[in-house]
Amino acid sequence: MKSIRDSVHGDLHLEEFEVRLTDTPEIQRLRRIKQLGFTYLVYPGANHSRFEHSIGTMYLASRLARNLQLDEDTHTLVRSCALLHDAGHGPFSHVSERVLDSSHEELTSKLIKESQLGDILSEKFSVKEVLKVINGEGPLGQIISGELDVDRMDYLLRDSHYTGVAYGVIDVERLIYNMKLDDGILLLQSKGVQAAESMLLARYFMYPSVYQHHTTRIVNSMFRRCLGKLLEKKVINEHEIYRYDDTDIISLARSEEGYIQDIMGRLDTRQLYKRVYSLKFDDIDNPKRIFQMSDLTIQKVEEEIAGDLGVDKDFILVDVPEYPIFHEMSTPVSLNGDTVMLGDISNLVMALKDVRFNHADLCIYLPEEYADSASKLNFIDYLNL
Amino acid sequence: MKSIRDSVHGDLHLEEFEVRLTDTPEIQRLRRIKQLGFTYLVYPGANHSRFEHSIGTMYLASRLARNLQLDEDTHTLVRSCALLHDAGHGPFSHVSERVLDSSHEELTSKLIKESQLGDILSEKFSVKEVLKVINGEGPLGQIISGELDVDRMDYLLRDSHYTGVAYGVIDVERLIYNMKLDDGILLLQSKGVQAAESMLLARYFMYPSVYQHHTTRIVNSMFRRCLGKLLEKKVINEHEIYRYDDTDIISLARSEEGYIQDIMGRLDTRQLYKRVYSLKFDDIDNPKRIFQMSDLTIQKVEEEIAGDLGVDKDFILVDVPEYPIFHEMSTPVSLNGDTVMLGDISNLVMALKDVRFNHADLCIYLPEEYADSASKLNFIDYLNL
Amino acid sequence: MKSIRDSVHGDLHLEEFEVRLTDTPEIQRLRRIKQLGFTYLVYPGANHSRFEHSIGTMYLASRLARNLQLDEDTHTLVRSCALLHDAGHGPFSHVSERVLDSSHEELTSKLIKESQLGDILSEKFSVKEVLKVINGEGPLGQIISGELDVDRMDYLLRDSHYTGVAYGVIDVERLIYNMKLDDGILLLQSKGVQAAESMLLARYFMYPSVYQHHTTRIVNSMFRRCLGKLLEKKVINEHEIYRYDDTDIISLARSEEGYIQDIMGRLDTRQLYKRVYSLKFDDIDNPKRIFQMSDLTIQKVEEEIAGDLGVDKDFILVDVPEYPIFHEMSTPVSLNGDTVMLGDISNLVMALKDVRFNHADLCIYLPEEYADSASKLNFIDYLNL
Amino acid sequence: MKSIRDSVHGDLHLEEFEVRLTDTPEIQRLRRIKQLGFTYLVYPGANHSRFEHSIGTMYLASRLARNLQLDEDTHTLVRSCALLHDAGHGPFSHVSERVLDSSHEELTSKLIKESQLGDILSEKFSVKEVLKVINGEGPLGQIISGELDVDRMDYLLRDSHYTGVAYGVIDVERLIYNMKLDDGILLLQSKGVQAAESMLLARYFMYPSVYQHHTTRIVNSMFRRCLGKLLEKKVINEHEIYRYDDTDIISLARSEEGYIQDIMGRLDTRQLYKRVYSLKFDDIDNPKRIFQMSDLTIQKVEEEIAGDLGVDKDFILVDVPEYPIFHEMSTPVSLNGDTVMLGDISNLVMALKDVRFNHADLCIYLPEEYADSASKLNFIDYLNL
């Protein structure tokens, strides 16, 4: 047994098997991946790593498993899956994901299969079984990656602790205590509905404050363009993105010349691109079209604007907002013997269905030195929406 | 006015002048310097940066300045000095300091003079004045770098928040409220004695738990050897150490071959050297001699052990403990009209004078693969103590 | 200057004038009035007093006043009003209010006028001016008792701290920082909208969890009946209810015989009445009629049920829910130069308009020993809704 | 199973047997006994009850029992004892204890035997066994009432939470995790020594700040005199002191005339006696004599002073400080196979042996109106020390 002091949950205890998993280079790499990418340029405390989040998720998975009275082997399975669930994340976590062809779940599966993680796991479980759980299949999968999973609980608490934004403080105890396994389905008991509503709202409030804070979006867009260029030039091997850490990417970018070096230099010195345009959802009909803009379309828009401004096309960043997914809405709830969906019985959640798009807007960023000339453009014309 | 959300103190407000100082590459670099170096290998949450600490110190300096009723210009001076006080820190903060010839205070002075920081400052103050305050001279210097300074208050609170070790939680309000300027000397009022005792003990408890945790000492020794080698090979320019960030050093080390690459690889994968020997203070006469061991002596000991083990001398790390300095003991206290020293009126502080050496021990580390052969050696014989 | 350590806000500082107000028996009495009445029978930590809340409100008022850059006299006026705003509360705070003919605001005005509080105040201000502010008139009144007032901020934070229910943790800094006085109106800046939404939701979640928790409602109903009887028998002088503290009422009730002694004994030993009926809003048409049921109607219902059960009518408690008022919805917000209402621009707040009735239900309670016989009754028939 | 939300530890879960114990009038009475007596006149948040502390202690006992891997029955026994350990406390907890002939442990034993608590307990255990544990006998007794017991851990955390004084924040996890049962003795593992030192210091700092704060001592002395008078007049039955709650005593005192009513009125309105004399330990030889002053001696001193001042003897309160007991010093520690005492291996604890008397002083209080005349007296002459 080994114990690790976590700043959010206190002392976490690892069994020998878990220590072996943790001690692999694949899991240790997560110490060098920032959980919130470049958000530390907005919230200076947001330097926490995916490693902390992984062991924190393992801890919550363990509490939920105990509450569900899982047998010891299943308990260990759930803990191991929680520990590994993010192993495939590329540098800077989700920020890099949008540039890659594979999701972090796919990459995690690939990494586990080809690394010693698979070997260690197969001493106790079939790797296939593990991957199913990590990918959210079956009742155990619901614990790690379901509508109301421990992954989300941990990151809300953790991101609050490190950013200093209190919105993410949720009632984990009430949530975990009110989950039951029923006929192979993970159900929320009706007594936990309020805690679930509150968690949904916590996440909703974290969006504009942290995850989609307007400056966070600028730095993320800048970094994504930088990473895209590195991939394009094959400086980085996309298929092994889970071998790199944040340091690798930054130092590779610094060693490049031209555009890549320039944009990394701006990130280093926090000389950020400026937002020159914001298209709010209220401003157009059928605004959800925005989410469907293809990469090709976006690229074309960028090229046109760049052409008219007389600058390189990579200086124009058209930032389509992330679709605000709230799987929690479909959490199955046990209510008077029936199973219903949270979104169907909670008027507050119902309201959130629309409200969540409130803060979404399409933005255009470019270097400060071109902001003046850009102010003469009529951006809506380029968008063809 | 700009506001920054700090995870420890809440919203911090910056005036335009301070924003300009903060926006320099010199201060932005501090975002990429970990406050506690490689301690994140022991406490996974300890990823916080020297940037956060700098603005946190500015905040506390501001509260103290307001309590002392300083005029507006002096207030700004104190704030600026607090913001800049750590600007010269090398990568990984204090860990690198022991390898360098200059202290971080000297480097800070040099950096301010030769960078745009000096230019901005000189719009309002003489740079000389600023450097005096940063170096702890005069009553204003006492605020930033004195016996009971805001620098220490901030790092205790901050290191507690991020490591999850509660010992550093101190009563900042009571401390600040009980400081008074009297005839150019910053005095603690007697009502604040207990808060000061408690802060001293907080720091004392943080030593073995965090700052000198036995694993922290191993990783720090490993990194220092690595950095020493980089300096020796002139891969890094010692005189401009304040131009590098953590990422620079790590990627430079990774690009090297042989020993440097090896030891950085071990840090990356957390395959740490093992402690094969610990000499406790109780085990020898006049133990304080240990602190006086010269670098040359240490090197000789390492060489001899290496020779007998038949390994390269750099695989042997003799780690002399840091002398536990507690300047707080000499805090001047105003007591019934007299000025006395905290250490003279507090029996608890008096007791701490000896107690602080309790946890100090000289240690020897080497790679795990040599630990077995090393166990046959009689280390005390090499030390000549 | 005097300082008081508050468990929520830390050290609070009082000027000499405020110390004199605080030292009156009228304000000291508030130490002996529980902020949440009998809620401590549900949340054992909810023993906090209206005194703490009063000085906490004064502290927040002070921060807001400083942010609004009020001059020193006005600042003191606001602080004094915050300190006194609840002075007229009867024992057990709001629980008693529903039984009385006067609101606690009216009683506060009366008490200030007839006690030494008025004398002290009139050294600096006109009492009329003070009462206007306390009653929410004018821009200063908005600070203490407006749509988004410091009273509410304090009680949410405080009730969270003492009950252990985290929902009430709100972003006071962001709220206060985003309030501005504009042409005599206290406006929320648009940057603070999210913090206001979040506060509204915090309060919404506190309702079913704490303020209208189903057991809280039972104990409150029991106590109100007990108090009603004491008033009826003129054991207590309603017109001087602000002279009594919690202890007075309890010991007066214990000294009585019959029903009063019985029900107080049940509260003392936590042998609570049982809920035998709950009419949810969804169960009837036009449910808001419930809020309009007159005391006489309720009494008649109770009598009829008691008659059919063959018990004394005071054993039947028909509990009409409190109308969930959310004045925050009409908070004036400054948005692009216009002034709009929070409820008009926030879809989330709009949603809350209906959602807030979700948890409201009409309940019927009676002693456990009659619960069995009561289960045969068809309660809806008695209600004539 | 029932769950209770505690503001310090979160959700606590009670088994059916424990619910029955909790639902007795004897345990419910503890909701109406303030944990820190009249300390709320100094720290306005200190209104917490002995009930909260009892269930909090049960929770910590449970965590320790689980760590010690006790079997289920023994676990329940330990939990029940923790829940009941303070059942015999008189009103206002420890404040009343000094006036009574029996300790609260003796009263607890008596109460359990003569009430239904004994009947319920004897369904599962022998009452004798329970009393042994509550009184600290045997290894289980050490959990509840030993050198390093869960009672102390809970009250330090709880008193910190409610007073806002951070000193009591201790590392409960580390303490509990490092306790082991060895041959029937509860031992601290050497890895927990620092946490134990820190807890000892936490308690040490809480003394002058809270438990023996100079104003706390005044209000406690006032109340003790009041209670003494009530006992003397047989208004209260000393042998059944555990039948009364705080409200009973206050209302009984208010109904009295003369001295008793006067002093209770002063407590109600916080018109406290003034300290006119303080004899510090440094001022006399062999100062520990002070602790040995008999009640008779004290009474004589009070009479003589009263005589010379021409006032009733009850207006003079000579307050001998409490002997600062730190049983934690004798905590048995397992160190390299041996069992040693904490005080013998920790220099810090050794230092505390003397230091703890630093804040102790003998004080004399009397009503403000006599303070002037009293200032002419030479108090040391009356003391015969």
UniProtKB/TrEMBL annotation, chains A, B, C, D:
Pfam families: HD, HD_assoc_2. CDD domains: HDc (cd00077). This is Metal dependent phosphohydrolase. InterPro entries: dGTPase-like, HD/PDEase_dom, HD_assoc_2, HD_domain. GO terms for biological process: dGTP catabolic process. One of its GO terms (molecular function) is dGTPase activity. It comes from the Archaea. Transmembrane segments: none annotated. Residues 50-156 form the HD domain.
